[in-house]
């Protein structure tokens, strides 16, 4: 036979052999030249036109090998498409597996596997089905590009792990490698392995295990606790008291003015804590002791039982700890000690306690499952939790519904009998991706986000970073995210109003369905809704009635707002009210009205009108 040449300059392409057989091998451009002569024949040259590398055999030997193709390629456990195509080309030249193995210096098992796969699929690589959607979404591709840029140099396995952590998508290293190549990233093997001595390895290991030591301070406030509003804890937020609490049906009353607890007459209070969806409350004394009272159906008071408490009681399990901060969810509680350790207790059906499991309830405080840097902030939504470490990293755990955990997923999956359930996070998982979205939907990752503060509503979250920017994500109903639309956000999205010089935020607060921010100039901004029968505010708007007031503290209930500004207390909200506005009657306050608290100035307060 004479010489057969085939030049192909478009994809997909085929190798054509003298017998007329053809095989689809890859989406690259190669030239295969086959020559039969008196020395026995065989492949005489293989040319890869992409980088113009030519591998020539030793034409003086009886056996004509291609010079060490395996060693010249990228050092990887997988064969390249070029190598697989070469194997099939040799196979179609009527060479045996043993001859191909010796010729290309590849294991026989590898050669056999390539040939078997080609016979089964008709190609050396699995081809996508017609109409099959792309594995990665456009947002996933942007996340992968951001991960690759911020983790140079790294192996494909490391990048795959980082990408899966950031996006929540499960992909193979092959998919990641292909996507990176399409983006213009190229890898190479190291020239030589670095020499690691025993002392050097020990130094690296010790350095990785070093954790910073912190000692958090209590708020520098010494005051007395005042309470007003509804105190029938088992009825708050419900139409009727559950049967299990029927004995307490008539207990608790609405307090239309400020009252004090007699048991706290000698107790100096540093801060008081509750939440927009909680029916229990906490206070922290100037000595760092944590007290709790209110609803206790899931052990959220931390006393080892489920009995409701009408008055504050010291949590004995934390008596030896100095508690500096705390947060309340619907039926669970987080407490933060001065050493940066977080304790959790209460309901845990959705993993909101972060203790590595999903149990009905934990009645006594226990540390969350976390091995990172010391924590400095804690916050709770209805059924999820957020913590911030001393490096500014944000972690979340609990129910992922509406994307409220910030991991680019709502966690939904169909269980038995077509029932929808959620893949909950039971341990603290870092929120790795923050993004900005343009009006046309273009998504851009935002790098270098160092979290300084976090606040949670019922199903949404706000954070404030070191550059005074505000991000929000979670349930987007009623405009509570401030992005001019009601779409849920699965990852933290930048609120653009505060991303300008001189317009940064200094404080953030969240209600059940609304959000507040105080900017650098002291102006108060609001978005969301406090009354679902009224029009929603879809983006941050200045609260004009409070222009000129210096806001020091703000708290949101289900629909009522109370503010400490200058030396006064200001409250408003829609009817019906139950005394939480402290106006001694059941008015629906349509406009802000200034009310100065007699005999004392307020230092701060939380939900249920807790001052």
UniProtKB/TrEMBL annotation:
The Swiss-Prot or TrEMBL record annotates one GO molecular function as: DNA binding
Gene symbol? Answer: LOC112233078
Keyword set, alphabetical order: Repeat
* First and last residues of every RCC repeat: 288-339, 340-391, 392-467, 468-521
From which source organism is this entry? Oncorhynchus tshawytscha (Chinook salmon)
Q: Which top-level group of life is the source organism from?
A: Eukaryota
Q: Does the keyword Nucleotide-binding apply?
A: no
InterPro entries recorded for this chain? Answer: Homeodomain-like_sf, HTH_SB, RCC1-like_dom, RCC1/BLIP-II, RCC2, Reg_chr_condens, Transposase_Tc1-like, WH-like_DNA-bd_sf
* Domain Sleeping Beauty transposase HTH per the UniProt entry, residue ranges: 73-124
- Every copy of the RCC1-like domain together lies at 225-573
**GO BP terms in the entry:** DNA integration; DNA transposition
Kindly give the Pfam families that the UniProt entry links to this protein. HTH_SB, HTH_Tnp_Tc3_2, WD40_RLD
A single GO cellular-component term on record: membrane
Sequence ranges assigned to domain Transposase Tc1-like in this UniProt record:
142-199
- The name this protein carries in UniProt is Regulator of chromosome condensation 2
């Amino acid at each position: 036979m004479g010489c057969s040449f085939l030049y192909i300059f478009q994809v997909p392409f085929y190798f054509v052999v003298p017998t007329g057989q053809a095989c689809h091998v890859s989406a690259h451009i190669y030239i295969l030249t086959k020559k039969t002569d008196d020395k026995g024949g065989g492949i005489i040259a293989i040319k890869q036109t992409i980088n113009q590398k030519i591998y020539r055999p030793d034409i003086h030997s009886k056996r004509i090998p291609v010079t060490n193709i395996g060693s010249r390629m990228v050092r990887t456990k997988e064969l390249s498409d070029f190598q697989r195509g070469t194997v099939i080309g040799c196979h179609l030249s009527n060479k045996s597996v043993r001859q191909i193995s010796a010729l290309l210096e590849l294991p026989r098992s590898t050669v056999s596997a390539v040939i078997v796969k080609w016979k089964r699929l008709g190609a050396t690589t699995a081809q996508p089905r017609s109409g099959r959607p792309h594995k990665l979404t456009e947002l996933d591709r942007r996340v992968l590009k951001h991960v690759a840029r911020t983790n140079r140099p790294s192996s494909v396995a490391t990048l795959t792990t980082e990408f899966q952590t950031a996006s929540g998508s499960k992909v193979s290293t092959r998919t990641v490698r292909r996507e990176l190549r399409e983006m213009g990233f190229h890898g190479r093997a190291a020239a030589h392995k670095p020499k690691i001595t025993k002392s050097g390895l020990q130094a690296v290991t010790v350095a990785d295990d070093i954790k910073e030591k912190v000692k958090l301070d209590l708020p520098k406030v010494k005051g007395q606790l005042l309470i007003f509003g509804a105190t029938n804890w088992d009825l708050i937020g419900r139409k009727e008291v559950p049967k299990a609490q029927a004995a307490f049906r008539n207990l608790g009353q609405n307090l239309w003015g400020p009252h004090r607890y007699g048991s706290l007459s000698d107790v100096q209070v540093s801060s008081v804590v509750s939440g927009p969806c909680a029916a229990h409350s906490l206070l922290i004394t100037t000595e760092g002791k944590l007290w709790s009272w209110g609803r206790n159906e899931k052990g959220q008071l931390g006393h080892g039982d489920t009995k409701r408490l009408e008055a504050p009681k010291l949590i004995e399990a934390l008596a030896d700890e100095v508690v500096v901060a705390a947060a309340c969810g619907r039926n669970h509680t987080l407490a933060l000690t001065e050493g940066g350790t977080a304790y959790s207790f209460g309901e845990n059906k959705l993993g909101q306690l972060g203790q590595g499991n999903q149990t009905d309830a934990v009645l006594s405080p226990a540390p969350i499952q976390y091995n990172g840097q010391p924590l400095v902030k804690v916050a709770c939504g209805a059924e999820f939790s957020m913590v911030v470490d001393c490096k500014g990293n944000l972690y979340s755990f609990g129910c992922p519904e509406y994307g409220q955990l910030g991991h680019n997923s709502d966690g939904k999956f169909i269980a038995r009998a077509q029932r929808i359930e959620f893949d909950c996070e039971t341990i603290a998982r870092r929120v790795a991706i923050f993004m900005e979205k343009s009006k046309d939907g273009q998504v851009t990752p935002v790098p270098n986000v160092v979290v300084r503060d976090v606040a949670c509503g019922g199903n949404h979250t706000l954070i404030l970073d070191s550059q005074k920017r505000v991000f929000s994500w979670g349930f987007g109903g009623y405009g509570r995210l401030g992005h001019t639309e009601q779409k849920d956000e699965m990852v933290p999205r930048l609120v653009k109003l505060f991303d300008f010089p001189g317009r940064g935020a200094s404080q953030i607060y969240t209600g059940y369905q609304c959000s507040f921010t105080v900017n650098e100039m002291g102006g108060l901004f609001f978005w969301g809704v406090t009354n679902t029968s009224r029009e929603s505010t879809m983006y941050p708007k200045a609260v004009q009635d409070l222009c000129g007031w210096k806001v020091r503290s703000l708290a949101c209930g289900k629909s009522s707002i109370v503010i400490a500004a200058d030396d006064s207390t200001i409250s408003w909200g829609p009817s019906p009210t139950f005394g939480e506005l402290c106006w001694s009657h059941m008015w629906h306050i349509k406009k802000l009205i200034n009310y100065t608290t007699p005999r004392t100035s307020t230092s701060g307060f939380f939900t249920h009108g807790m001052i």
